[in-house]
Design a protein that fits this description.
single chain, alpha+beta, Chemotaxis protein chec, Surface presentation of antigens (SPOA), 2 domains, eight-stranded antiparallel β-sheet, 8 helices, 12 strands, about 25% strand
Length: about 325
C-alpha cells in the first residue's frame, strides 16, 4: 500500500466526527445502508453473570439508602446491564464540565472512574439545602462552585464505601477515591483503545432522573462471568476455565538450576584472596533443583557420560517450599 493511501490523523478524526454527527444516512429499516460509526464498538454482556447481578443488586440497595441521606427524601435507584466500550469513545462523549472521580482498585492496581453531569450536582446541592430540585442549572455556570465540588465529593465517597461492601462477599477489594476532574481531557486512567465496563445508575427523585456512571476496567469485570452457581464443585464455566489454564500451564518451559555448594566468607578474606588460594566447602548431601528461587526437586550429584548431572530422588514438599520456610 502506498503511503498516500493511508489516512492521516486529522482525516481519521474528521471521519469519526462526521460519523457521530451525521443523522442524514438512511436507516436499515428503510432499506438503505446504515452508517457505521468507526469509533463505536460496544457490546453488552450476553451471558448471565450471577456474580455481577448479585453485586449490582447490593449496590442498588445501598445507593438507595445513601441517596436518601443526601437528597433528604425518598429515592429510587435503578441500573442497567453493563456495556463494554472503548475508553476513548466514552471519554469523548462526556459533557464539559463533568464531575469525574478517579477510582483505584487495590490490590489489583487497576483504575476506574465515577462520572456524573452538572445537573446531578446542582440538584444534589439544591435538595440538600432544602430546595425542591425542580430548577435547572443555569447554562452560564461553566465551572462548578466550591460548594458543589465539596458536596459531590462527599457523596461519591459514600458511594465508594457502598461499592466496597457490595463487592466484599465475592472478592475483597479496596476502592480508593483519587483525584477529581471537571474536564474529561485531563483524566487519563487508560489508553483510548482499552475496554471499560460502563454501568449506569439512575436516581429517581422528585420526578427527576439523575444518572451516574461507574466505569471499571474489563479486566476486572469479565472474569466475574466465570463465577457461577456451579463454580464450587469444579463444574460449569469456572471449572472449564480452570481446566484450560491447567492444560496450558503443562506446556510451559521452566529453567532449572542446581546449587552444588554454599559457604560463607568474610569480606576481608575475599578481598585478600589471591590466585591459587583454596576456599573449603563441604560435600553436598542433597542437591536442590530450583525454578527461579523456588525449590521443586531434590536429588544427588553425579556424572553421566562425562557430564555433571543430578539424580532426582524426590519432590520438594509444598509446605517446605518458599522463603518463609527457608
Amino acid at each position: 500500500m502506498e503511503s498516500d493511501e493511508v489516512l492521516t490523523g486529522e482525516e481519521s478524526e474528521a471521519l469519526r466526527d462526521s460519523a457521530a454527527t451525521d443523522d442524514s444516512s438512511p436507516s436499515a429499516d428503510a432499506g438503505g445502508v446504515r452508517a457505521l460509526d468507526p469509533d463505536h464498538w460496544e457490546r453488552v454482556f450476553r451471558d448471565r453473570a450471577p456474580a455481577l447481578e448479585s453485586i449490582a443488586e447490593r449496590m442498588v440497595s445501598r445507593f438507595r439508602l445513601s441517596g436518601r441521606k443526601y437528597f433528604r427524601r425518598s429515592v429510587e435507584v435503578t441500573t442497567e446491564p453493563p456495556k463494554v466500550v472503548r475508553w476513548g469513545y466514552y471519554l469523548r462523549g462526556l459533557p464539559i464540565p463533568a464531575s469525574l472521580h478517579e477510582l483505584e482498585v487495590r490490590p489489583l492496581g487497576l483504575r476506574g472512574v465515577v462520572s456524573t453531569n452538572s445537573q446531578f450536582i446542582f440538584t444534589l446541592v439544591d435538595f440538600f439545602f432544602g430546595g425542591d430540585g425542580k430548577a435547572d442549572r443555569p447554562p452560564d455556570f461553566v465551572e462548578h462552585t466550591a460548594m458543589e465540588e465539596r458536596m459531590v465529593r462527599r457523596f461519591i465517597e459514600v458511594l465508594v464505601t457502598d461499592m466496597e461492601e457490595s463487592w466484599r462477599p465475592l472478592v475483597d477489594l479496596d476502592f480508593v477515591l483519587g483525584r477529581s476532574e471537571n474536564n474529561p481531557l485531563f483524566l487519563s486512567i487508560a489508553a483510548d483503545s482499552d475496554s471499560m465496563s460502563i454501568t449506569p445508575f439512575t436516581f429517581h427523585v422528585a420526578g427527576r432522573e439523575l444518572t451516574l456512571d461507574i466505569a471499571l476496567p474489563s479486566a476486572l469485570i469479565e472474569p466475574m462471568q466465570l463465577v457461577g452457581k456451579d463454580s464450587g464443585n469444579g463444574t460449569g464455566k469456572a471449572g472449564v476455565w480452570r481446566s484450560h489454564i491447567r492444560e496450558d500451564v503443562q506446556d510451559a518451559e521452566v529453567t532449572l538450576r542446581a546449587v552444588l555448594a554454599e559457604t560463607e566468607v568474610s569480606l576481608r578474606d575475599l578481598t585478600m584472596a589471591m590466585p591459587g588460594d583454596v576456599i573449603p566447602i563441604e560435600k553436598p548431601g542433597v542437591i536442590r533443583l530450583l525454578a527461579g528461587d523456588q525449590p521443586v526437586l531434590e536429588g544427588s550429584f553425579g556424572i553421566i557420560r562425562d557430564v555433571n548431572a543430578v539424580k532426582v530422588t524426590s519432590q520438594v514438599r509444598r509446605d517446605r517450599a518458599g522463603e518463609r520456610n527457608g
